[in-house]
Amino acid sequence: MSDKDTLTLSAISGQAEVLTASTTIDTAKSDKLKFLINQIVGRLQSTFFAGIGILIFIGFWSLLRFYTKDALPGPLATFTVLKEMLSDPFYDYGPNDKGIGLQLFNSIKTVLLGFLLGSLVAIPIGILMGASTICKQIFYPIVQLLKPVSPLAWFPIGLVVFKDTGMATIFIVFITSLWSTLINTSFGIASIPQDHKNVAKAFGFSKMRYLTKILIPFSLPHIITGLRLSISVAWLVIVAGEMLSGGAGIGFFVWDSWNALSLEKVISAIIIIGIVGLLFDKFFTYIENKVAYR
Amino acid sequence: MSYLEIKNLEIAFPTPKGKYIAVRDINLSIKKGEIISIIGHSGCGKSTIMNAIGGMLTPTGGSVELANQKIKGPGPDRGIVFQNYSLLPWLTVEENIFQAVDSVMKCSKKEKHEIVIQNLKMVNLFEHKDKLPGQLSGGMKQRVAIARAFAINPGVLLLDEPFGALDALTKGSMQLEVLKLWNLDNREKTIIMITHDIEEALFLSDRIVVLNNGPASTIREIVEVNLPRPRNKIEIVKMPEYIALRDRLLHLLTDKFSIEDMGMVYKS
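^ Those are the sequences you sent over. The predicted structure of the assembly is below.
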């Protein structure tokens, strides 16, 4: 009813609006400009402070280099090597000498494959655990027991089962990707408010309608959070895993560079690993915001 | 001729300390098209009775019968408006109503959409149909919830403290909204409403069921409201019958009327 009132009100004041229209357009324009300027200033400010943070970091790094009497390469030497590495990232001179781009591509492929398989297992089990107490009682003790185990401990088992280091690496990523997704999914499903369930009950929602209109929309943000946590841990684990497995990937690259005593390459790889991890996280945060509801 | 028949209803919950009886000996027969208010203090089992009618709870004793059929669970013959609106926050206003209609009604998609639009227009929310519940005010959300309950065209409408969370002004217009919908439907829908508000109960209902305090609360008294309809909010408060009824209800629901009743007499 209040909407009707405002409608008539605006109709009455329509004439007055015509008179003030030109001025309102001007103020609207300047408001828009102010907003834009504010936004740009905000961005500049945050970039500026981020720059200060990086400068402090580089300062400490230089100090460290000074104290280790140049055993640790300084920022300048590292960036020269990094630039060199990035100038030709896809060269391939045999199994032990590949460009950083190829190594990175290999690692990302392994992580995504393991992560995908892990998620395909974790989400359905998480849904079951959240929806049924019996399923929770069956799976939860196993999850609690295995979750704290370092994924690297699974490597020998992967080797025995698959008889292939590449597969074993995918296997440890798979194991790593399970836990956060599983726990977040089951939590999300279990915390569907009684209100929403009552709606389904009162209006006789079918199982399918409950699934698509209540269960999934409610728990999707929780599931995505789980996926985000899982992929960050998976990305942590891949470096260590490839150090063990050898042969390919960014982890192998780090270990290989250390053996060749090229610490510049090690640090460059660390920077690249950090950036890729950040991108993964940003990607899932973006999706998280997309599926969130108020 | 009774439409909704509550017979010796008892609802108890198991607790670690034993059986907790929420309500017992509830006997009530409601005619088609009647508006009934259930009033009582917090925790006296109002919502419990409502849930039993809605089929969300199974009675531990007695029965609830709707058109001579024992109620065994929730069903499309009863539309429920929940206390806290219970809209699905990820669906638009239109979708919220459509999902209920689509689930309950047996007609073509096109007809279902028409029902949704018609009900949205009835509560003056057509312009807001593409908004999410989070973008609406409390009163608007409640209107969506009412439109959703009406849209499935139930014989009985159950309102669980529908306006409890609304401010006094919005509350007033929402009460009129409910009466309007009831009139548009030829006063054929039976409405059962829980409330804390004596004025609201008097303005809307044909009968007011006053409950005793819990636990194990029973019906204390059923007050007939013989005020002529349509009722005018300003007019009815001046009627002697209204004043008498209000005083009666106040006496039933209140133990003390001023601080002097508590033995604290102020001397100047």
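Chain B has a mean pLDDT of 88. Strands of chain B lie at 4-15, 18-30, 35-39, 61-66, 69-70, 78-81, 156-160, 190-195, 207-211, 219-224.

Shout if you want it in another format.
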